[in-house]
Structure formats: C-alpha cells, structure tokens
C-alpha cells in the first residue's frame, strides 16, 4: 500500500548499506531519528469538513490526510510529526471530465476552492491547501487513467490526465509505443501533473521535455471547456498550449491529454564513462550536446556525487577494485562519472556509440561499458526510496535544482554547493552536498543538487534548518541567472522567487492569464503566483 | 534599389522561360498584364501626415508609401494599381531601444497608433495601417541590424531585432557560426519579424523553428521594458518567451533578440530523390521523420508541382533526358520529387545518407544525387522573384499554407487543391494549383500550396478572384483540422479564421494577453486579433 507519510509503496524498504552510513557519519556526524506520529493520531486531528454534502465528494479523514501534502522535505516533516495544520475539506475522484465540470460548477456556486491532484509527488507545495477561511476540495484525477485513443499514423496518444507513469508506459508498450517521459517521480506522478508543472524526463535528449510531448487536449476551467487542437506546428499567434504548460492548476484542470509518442526503439543501452576531473567532464558534456551527438540521455555527476554514489552503492570490494582500475587509468580523486543513453536502431546505436567514444578521446575519459549503466537504469526510479532509508537513520535529504547557460554552470553550481555546505555553520553543523547535471542542452544545463543533514533535536528545529538552506539558496539561484526551477515547478515553495525570474511585466502577463480563466481566484490559490493577500511576506509554504 | 511595388531588388529581373510560359498557357489560358501605376502618381495621392512634428519621425511621402504594404497578393494589387487607400502618417527608423521607448511614450501621450516594421515581407497584412481616424506611426527597426554579442560557450548571439536574414548570417559566419533560419523571405525579412510572426525556416529539421531558436531578449511595451532572460529550459510557470513569439506587434516592439546559434557545419549537401507516386513519397517522408533520420531539411513536391517545376526550370532538352531516365526507372506521370538536406560532420553526413538511401529502398525511390539539390539551394530564395516575372506576363500567383497531423495531410491537401482549382469555375477560369510539404514533423506536416491564375480585366475583378479563393480555402482549412498558418502568421488577412482554431477561451487568453500590455489598443490594432469595433464582419484586410 502507498505510504501515507512518505514515498512509494510501504512493502519496499531499501536498506542503507553500512559503507554508506559510515560515509555519511564521517562527513556530517551521527544522527538520531525523530519519532514518527501514527496515522491514528493524525486522523484524530482532522477537523470536520466545511464542504456541502455531495455524492462526488469524500470527506473521510484518512482520504483527506492522504491528499493534504506532497513530497517536499517540509511535507515530510509535517507528515512525520503529524503537524499537518491544514487538510483539504474533501477529496473527489471523478471518473470523467463531465464530473470534473460538475464539481467546478459546484465550487463556483457554493464558494469553495479547488486543488487539482495528480500523483501527489510535488516537491514544491503545489497541492497543499492554504490555511484560510475558504473550504478546499481536492480533485484527484486518479480514476482517469486510461489510454483512450492511439493514432499510429500521426503518433498521437490520448490519455486520461490522471494516468501515472507506469500506466502510461504499459498501455503504450502493449501497442509497441513509448512516450519516453521518465522523471524521477515516474512511479507515482501523472501525465496531467507533468503538463501542469512543465516536467522533464531523464531521456529528454531523445524525446524532449513535456513541452515537446504535449500536443493538445482538454482543460476544464471555470469559464467552460478549453479544447486545444493537435497541430504539428503553427504560426497562428501565441500558443495556448504553452499557457497550459506550467499553469499548475491555476487556469483549469487538465482532463484529457494528447501526447506525441514514438515506436519502441529496437535497442537501448546506458553506458558509463569516467573523467579525471570536473573540468574535462563538463567540457565533454557541453561539447557533446552542442555537436548534436545522437544521445538519448546524459547525466554527469560531479566528484562528490561520484564518490557518494560509490559509497551508497555498498559492495566495498567491487568499488575498491573499480577505484584501483580507474586510478591506473588516471582517474583518481576528483573523478566524475557520466552516464549516457543510446537509443535507436541497431545501426544507429552502433554509429552513435562509436561517435561518442571518438568524441571523448581528447577528454581522456575511461569508458566503463554498460554494466554500471544497466544498474543505473534498473534503479532509476528507486532514488526516492533512499530518502526513506536515510530518514530512518536520522538524516534529512532534500534536493534543489535549476538550469543556466553553459558560461554560468560552474559558477552557479559552485555558489549553490558552497551556500548549502556552509549553510548551517551557525550551528556548527556540516551539510553533505553533491550535484549532477541531469539535462543538458546546447545552450546550458540543469544543475541538480542534493543535500543531506542530520535532523535536529525536534521537528521545528529541523524545519528551521531546511528553511534557512532553501531560502538562501533560492535567492542565490535567481540572483545569478538560474531559473527557480528546471523540473520541479513553482508551487507555493518557489513562488516568492518567481518575480525575480519573470520580471514585473512577465508577472503581469501570468497574473493576466490566471485572471482571464479564474477571476475569482478559486483554483489552487497561492500556487505559482502569490496572491495579493499574500504579499505581506508571510509564506504559506510549510504550514509550520 | 528595393522595388517600391514588388519583391526584392529592381536590378534582378528573372525571365520566365518559354517552356514555362507555354506550360501555363496550356493549363490556364493566355493572359494580359494589367498596367502598373508610377511611383510619382502614388506620391501625389499621399495625404498630409496627422502626426506631430518630431525629429525621429519622417513624413516624406515616398517613405510612407514604401512602408504602407507588405507582399501579399492584395498588397501587390494595391501597389501595382496605386490604390493604396491608406498610408502610415509617418515612419521612424530609430537606432536604439531608447528611441523606440521615446516613440512609444509619445504615442501614448499624443494618441497615435504604432505599427512595428521589420522587412515588410508579410503576406498576411501584418504591417498595413487600418483606415480609421487614428494617426499611425510605422516604426521600422532597420537601423538596429547588428550582432551585439556572441557567447560562444553558451552559443547565444544577441542581435538588434531589425537585422535581416543575410546580415544575421554574414555577421555570424564571419565568426564561424550560423543561426540556420532560412525562410523563403530570408533576403528581406528580419529576426524580430521572424519572432513576432513565429516563422519557420527551410532547415527547421536541424535547427528548429524560431520558437526553438529564440532564447530571450528585450521588448519595449507601453507599460515599460519586458526583459526575457536566457535559460536553457525552465519549469517555472508558463513561458513568457512563448507569449512574445507570434505576438505580431500587439504587446510591444522587440528591440533585441538573443538566439541559439550553432557552429558552421563541416559539410552540407542537398539531394533529390524521385518517387513513382504521391502515396509512396508521402509515406516515405512520414516514416523518415518519424524514424528520426538525421536530416536537416525535407521538402516533398506533389506530382503537379514536380511537373511545374521542371517546366518552369526551362532547359527542355535536359528535362526530356531526365524524364526518359526516370521513366526507365518506373517514375513516369505522377512522379514526385523529394529534396532533402544532410548537414554535419563528414562522418555524420556519410552515415545519414546511407541511412536515408537504405530507408527509401522499399519505397522504390530513384536517387538523383546532389546536382538538382545544389540548384535548389542556389535558387532557394529566388522564388519570390518569379512572382514578378509571372506578373509581367499577366499571371497572378499566391500561396496558402497550413499544417495538420499525418492522418489528415492527404485529405486536407486534396480539399485545398480542389477548392482552388475549381474556385473560379463561375467565371469558367481554371486555376493552376500545386503543393509541397515544406516542413515535416513526426506528428504531421505543413502543406504549402501555390496557385496561379490570369489577372482579370481590371484590378478590382482580379482582387475579387483572389478574395474568393482565399476566403473559401481559409474556411476549409480551419474547418478541417488545419492551422490557419504554419509559417506566415495571422496578420489582418487570417484574423477572421483564428477564433475557429483557438476556440472561445483560447481567444479570451490572447485578448487578455494583449490587454495586459496594451489596454488602449495602440499597438498594431486589427492584426492577430480583430478588434471589438471590427466584429461587424467588415474586413480591413485589403483596403479595396
């Protein structure tokens, strides 16, 4: 069953290997886990619903708890401590767009707010209700999870927007197709959520971001139904599709999504290459993508991430042998691991691998074959479970991500890491920080940074640690040519920093868009755009 | 010198070969050219300017004439007949964004409208002033035509938005880079115009449409300056960049554009392949692009276009030999010519060509090498001059274009062609019609249709012919899953059909966007969105 207070299925309990634990202890000291609250205790706290009785609305306390929070670190702290503070007043799980419409009409009539809910995997507070006087209905799209149509000539698949990653792929795979969108949250996140939050998948180099995959569909809004026709391309004015992408539930609820699919590839393999240092590795990555080498993914870990991954993988004997081998080939301390994917026909894959290896020769990379790549592919969606294991050992883990142009990648990654690493120095508490480039573009790259610190003596103090790290680093990012989010979206957590990125007129354009569709501010208020009442500087982000 | 009443430089006078003329006569009968008006006669008609005296505003009649019309067929008829009906009241050619700002502030203060002007190559009435009581200032960006910065690490070039195609490429080429954006109008159209009208270049398969090339920049609006930062990608809400793309001067004037550039390729070649019939050719094109073959362009002429091109090329002896050769290889009447480009390193090009040839074998294509492809590349921007030659023989030529999903390409192309071909049957006047797919996508394709008919006895009757063909076909397109424009934009000519494509809520979103930036409706009114006062059904499209 899905965990009510953490990630994924509760039958999956990955253990942290002893080498990993030792590695962390050496770096940031020992830790003492905080006690978890029980579900029963939280159920007892849930206040009565303020919503009208309605056959489509479920007001059962456990259901409301299970739709109250996402997966950000403050969400974890709230769920583990039981300090939810606010719950939706009810949850609806409509089976079709008609029922979504009915609920929206009801919201307008009865005066409650609506939060659309996909897989509940937001790490930026997208689906957290605000703590105010207006009742909140969370509309989960989970029942709208079918492949409705597949046009193999135009390669367009139509899905219910609540279809989660595994059901997107299994329903397509049975017909010989793939969407090719694999975010880290793949196991639980949904197609509609990907569109609403402008998601990016690990193989975006081949398949594109969700912006390139989303072809059209249907959005139920408070002003009626918005239909976006599929067109391969158009010059007919600004693209309404692009206004839905990233709208985070503020203009309507996506009910049906048409996406561009691809026949399953003949071959796919993932390879690992190790570079002597960051400088060589980063230059190779930049030049590979700028040379348009036919890769389907590229991920480049910096030196600390490479070392951390080897430690957390366990198998000290194997790792030792590997390190010796790499040292012999010139890659010792400071080495950086690149994982890349090659996808296509047998002939295309053979050619691509030859091209990549030839290209990387001047960068003196050590090619490691497909063994470690296979392992990465097998575990690619398991990372969030590691958070659970670390938590049980008393370690809190969070990630921060951005993207910037190549000329700024090293500088910004350095700033982020230094700020996090020394961010708790006032408590004399080191933080373990490492990064990788997860998505590369000819113009620049995403930077994905993970930071681990021991929980404090209580939940409040732990939250304070997070808040300080998150806020100072977010400000650094937007003040130094980074986007506040490359792949997690804005939600409530990033909303304070959006104006710095978009500028005053850009914000006016977004406000204008939201107002066109939702003048009464009923849909997911506080997400994406902080509302006027919210400009006092108070943040609704964590409820604590 | 640039022609005041037609396309391009007046020193270029391509002749229509005898075979081409004979070919057209056989199909649509002989024609008698209409008499051209002289520039002097038009100068005499220009009314006094209603604008205030200002050092940045030029009210010289000839300058006003030269900025009054674009290059649509009704624009030609207006220019050739001298029936302009309306001229801008003045033209400014500011040297920098600061002067653009000054002019916008003046417009707000004094109450005149503003039309931004790039290369004046619109074929949809983008830059034509409305005939109403408000004075109009046309702001030409022509003096802002420099490469301002080139970041070779992030591969971002910054240009003045008025830089025309040849100056974009020559300034980049000198530094070893290319933008790779080659619309048919390349010789005269500008970077800012491409962005404002969501342009597509012939090699978009490799370089992308302008949506993919435009990275950020500066837009002067009536509410201040909108700065769009460069980011390789972002999930931080709807993309403001995408609101500028296709805004057609309605939200502001693009003054500086940052674009994604690429190092000049090692090799580039254009190849021709001939298929026995449309069905095989279209299937090959669809499957090639869906298989992600590494092509840099693909253009597929249907049978009538193939025959027409061979006739218009002249060289009857060569053509005869070619036809005999093709017939021997199974490609007789009904044959279709595909031109494709291959770009990259020597190794990549060799591999790509091998892949394409192997891929097309089951489609029984006859590969013709690079001779005809070289010729196409040499003449790729000369097509608009052919219009001049046809005009002098009494033939009017216009084009219509759209894009649709693959499952609808044949049907829609058929509808468009039949409607045009028989569109003047009430006058017992045949129309010569042919099409090609100019841009292919995995999801679908653009359809680019050319139609030629003899001018009528006078300008008014000729305009009526055009109007009937244009209006009935535009309605057919939007009622049958086509976009009203894949690459020409909306302007004033396509605005009546936009609501059918965008839907009521989509239109509300566009109106909301324009209102956010320009509540007083001063910037290019009537373009993109028909204004409220214009919903009577009157069209401002042709001024005649």
TrEMBL record, chains A, B:
Residue ranges of every copy of the FAD-binding PCMH-type domain listed in the record: 84-264
Record carries keyword Flavoprotein: yes
Keyword Flavoprotein among record annotations: yes
Record region (Disordered): 521-544
Highest taxon of source: Bacteria
Any matching Pfam family: FAD_binding_4
Protein known as: FAD-binding oxidoreductase
Compositionally biased residues, Polar residues: 535-544
Family according to the record: Belongs to the FAD-binding oxidoreductase/transferase type 4 family.
Keywords recorded for this protein, A-Z: FAD, Flavoprotein
Entry-linked InterPro entries: Alkyl-DHAP_Synthase, FAD-bd_oxidored_4_C, FAD-bd_PCMH, FAD-bd_PCMH-like_sf, FAD-bd_PCMH_sub1, FAD-bd_PCMH_sub2, FAD-linked_Oxase-like_C, Oxid_FAD_bind_N
Gene3D superfamilies the UniProt entry points to: 3.30.300.330, 3.30.465.10, 3.30.70.3450, Uridine Diphospho-n-acetylenolpyruvylglucosamine Reductase, domain 2, Vanillyl-alcohol Oxidase, Chain A, domain 4
